[in-house]
Amino acid sequence: MDGEMKYKLIALDLDGTLLNDDHDISEQTMETVIEVSKQGAEIIVCTGRGPQNSIPFMEKMGLMGYVISHNGAATAKVETREIIHQFSMDHGALTPYIEYCREKDIHFDVNTAFEMFVESVENLKVEVRSMYENFLTLPFNLPAWTDLKDPIVKFTMFGEPAQLDEAYKEFSTWTSDLNMLRSGEYFIDLMDKEASKGNALKQFAIKRGIQQEEILAIGNYHNDITMLTYAGKGIAMDNSPIEVKAAADEITLSNNEDGVHVALLKHCLS
């Protein structure tokens, strides 16, 4: 290995992985990610967030390239904000889920690649509003389906973990073509059945001519499992649920202890 890096593509999840619990990247982790990029590896962010609230983290690190957003449903170019690939959903398939959410008073939003819609911005509960503020995002009021200019890529429910556990169980008995994911303790996401972080990463790597064994992926939640298992090396954060740790090749420190820095130091810079 004449100094050439083994991993050509580094896929990083944001929340709970690259970001600490204050939703920020620590100085140390940021410096390490930038150094790995300087050494020639391509950094790609793979997140459940949309491009508009994930691209700023790439820009903050001074990195160009791409983000895989909405759990793999939309891949966007950092410099131009252009969507280079997306998996769109049929809004008709969402009807039973919307009815369930209304009946059980579970908050939901509908996402196109760049915009997020809720039933009523004015009537958002305090905890819902602060969740959006944490994610640096501002929803709009949902228009009629026919007035949506762009395809829907993701439907998200936000609620108490116990309430969502129950919903997840219920939905698992439904016949549906959608991909359902717990993307966080307080979230359930629905997407096109082809959409996943692993699948988006695979399409991206093929386009780039990068082999599976040249990919390193780091994540911390159920929506990261497809990406961790696809990558040549999948690393779970110490703050991951047990199933995520089981799917990974190894475990690094938590997101509050610079786990990404530690993993990159070991595999890319030592």
Automatic annotation (TrEMBL):
Pfam families: Hydrolase_3. InterPro entries: Cof (IPR000150), HAD-like_sf (IPR036412), HAD-SF_hydro_IIB (IPR006379), HAD_sf (IPR023214). It comes from Paenibacillus macquariensis. This is Hydrolase.
